[in-house]
Amino acid sequence: MAEAMHQQTDLPAALCQTLARRGVAPDAVAGFLEPQLRDLLPNPRILKDMEKAAARFLRAVKARERIAIFADYDVDGGSSAALLIDWLRQMGRQATLYVPDRIDEGYGPNEPAMAALAHDHDLIICVDCGTLSHAPIAAAKGADVVVLDHHLGGETLPDCLAVVNPNRQDETGDLAHLCAAAVVFLMLVEANRQMRGQGAQGPDLMAMLDLVALATVADVAPLIGVNRALVRQGLKIMARRSRPGLVALSDVGRIDQAPTSYHLGFVLGPRVNAGGRIGAADLGARLLSTQNPVEARAMAERLDELNSERREIENAVRAAAIEQAENRGLDAPLVWAAGEGWHPGVVGIVASRLKEMTNRPAIVIGLDGDEGKGSGRSISGVDLGASIQRLAAEGLLIKGGGHKMAAGLTVARDKVDTAMARLSDLLARQGAGDAGPADLKLDGILMPGAAQVDLVEQIEKAGPFGASAPAPRYVFPDVQISFAKRVGESHLKLSFGDGLGARIDAICFGAFDGPLGPRLSDRSGARFHLAGRLEINSWGGRQSVQLRLEDAAEATPG
């Protein structure tokens, strides 16, 4: 199919291989390479409660009612809140922002906070949370509550004015891949539509797609369907550098080129998240919504500091969790660890590392007093969120929820072992224990001389790459390492060539957390097969190809 596409379209063979792997038919190539929101954006009204939610929102705006936004403390929650604050500001309105403290209050609405907000406000909008918050929403007496969320819904919904969520049990699931910020964006699309029907004009929504793109990538939403278009267009908006918070964040993250999905997921996202993990919970949302460049710079620098602190805490927890999980066994259907005082803000990241290391669903729990707060990450084909919800329904968890690939939980200390044993059993029924080591799928073979900037630019037209849309991975066979050096705490930089003059630089992040770093360091002159993803590295105004190294095997002579 790739060869036929190459002949029909005259596109580079490497790009055609990527498109064929994505299942793109030759006659659909043009539309895939230039995804248009007007073609892919769904009608917001196909989501239940959408018209009702937008109408109530507009009524509050028109009547100058007091509006509160209750947001989750991660990137998706912060971006969702910033979208609403930005829209309201352009309409000459404002809202109270409330983000719960991860340690003191935990995830989602809680009864004291909701009761206090209801006392002083007419409308409370819960973003990226609320679908399972029956009691807290019931405590919001005297105020209307609208939920804009994407987390897995239960059998019943909280008693409130509207719950807009593509993952409600009575939804079709066609839009289950949307993050919360995309749901908020659709609500604003519907609000603008209703305003036009009343002869009024709403704010420019296209200019807000930078926030939707950031949330989509950072929340690891699959980059399929409309999500591709949202991220592609959002990156173009971000490149204009018009949002002070993202400009400041890009500067402290030393992004000196047009942003890519990698920058959203690995440079900007972790810094926005750092406030919710170990610092001021609302710092990320405030940064994303501020219009003051000086204020934005100060908040971005603080988030950068918190992110460095987060890495130190994470490294300590990760080492302890890996040791504990290894002692328990890494081939079980569930890999898990629990430790005294492990910071709730990093357990999710450590769970991700365990999942990547073992190709198993992973749970990491921080114990404090009589309870433990944990976070989990899953592998493809295993629905962790549904299993966590079942545990909560069975009384083995104090609370828990999430979606297929990620979940959170609170568990009594004396039920940790029982709950994890039961979860392991539920995941085993989904085949979690059947997976071997994760396969490293290769898309083709390249020689160093062929890896040119224009080729990488062509391949990137098939992006953005991320969850459910991995960038193509190539192998460079039998190349010679000319330079290898450890950088930072655990990364490896190296250069390699084919002996014919072509040379490529490579970076392997976290190489010394596994066997790759020791295997490749101080091996100048040795020959290896190297596999990874190609990217363009910009430095000092010049562009060069860089390999993001993922695996290596020593080339044996003959």
Under the CATH scheme, which architecture of the largest domain would be assigned? Alpha-Beta Complex
Number of helices: 20
CATH topology of the largest domain: inorganic pyrophosphatase (n-terminal core)
Helix content: 40-55%
Radius of gyration: 24 Å
Oligomer: single chain
Mean pLDDT reading? 93
Class by alpha and beta content: alpha/beta
What is the number of domains?
4
Report on the biggest sheet. Answer: 5 strands, parallel
| Total number of strands | 16
| CATH level-1 class of the largest domain | Alpha Beta
Q: Identify the strand order in the major beta sheet.
A: 2-1-3-4-5
Keywords: Coiled coil, Exonuclease, Hydrolase, Nuclease
GO molecular function: 5'-3' exonuclease activity; nucleic acid binding
Coiled coil: 296-326
Pfam families: DHH, DHHA1, RecJ_OB
Descriptive overview:
The protein is of the alpha/beta class and 558 residues long. It has four domains: 2-33, no CATH class; 44-302, inorganic pyrophosphatase (n-terminal core); 329-434, Diaminopimelate Epimerase, Chain A, domain 1, CATH 3.10.310; 444-554, OB fold (Dihydrolipoamide Acetyltransferase, E2P), CATH 2.40.50.460. Helices cover 41% and strands 19% of the residues. The strands form three sheets. Strands 2-1-3-4-5 form a five-stranded parallel beta sheet, with helices on both faces. Strands 6-7-8-10-9 form a five-stranded mixed beta sheet, with helices on both faces. A five-stranded mixed beta barrel has the order 12-13-14-16-15. α5 (50-62) packs across α9. This is Single-stranded-DNA-specific exonuclease RecJ. InterPro entries: DDH_dom, DHH_sf, DHHA1_dom, RecJ, RecJ_OB, SSDNA_exonuclease_RecJ. Residues 443-551 form the RecJ OB domain. Residues 66-216 form the DDH domain.
